[in-house]
What does this fold into?
Amino acid sequence: MNDDEERSVDAAVEGELRLLDPAVRALPHMVSELLDPEFFEFGASGARYDRTTILSAIAPSPIERVTATGISELSGKLLAPGLVQVTYVSDESGRLARRSSLWRRTAEGWRLYFHQGTLISTE
It folds into this structure.
């Protein structure tokens, strides 16, 4: 991986970790800076969310989410110039999910375009 590719992966991973920071999640304007205008998510519950839904949910009080201390297997991969996939396993009080995010470079910087969480069966 060349330096530019490595910087791209690092920027996307850093953005993902910022979104997992409770201090960032408590401030809708900070979350807004990290979400692409076209952002959407398929949650581990199967529900579909868009940027407006996410920002509305955290406006009155921060939604409980995964924090950086509850993740493992964190990795990033450059898929194409300006597009990075970040994957990890989240642990929310014993509820494990595989998570995948797509980050794309925009004129404003790296923004989260897509996120999906899939529950891991513990049976």
Residues 3 and 111 are 20 Å apart (CA to CA).
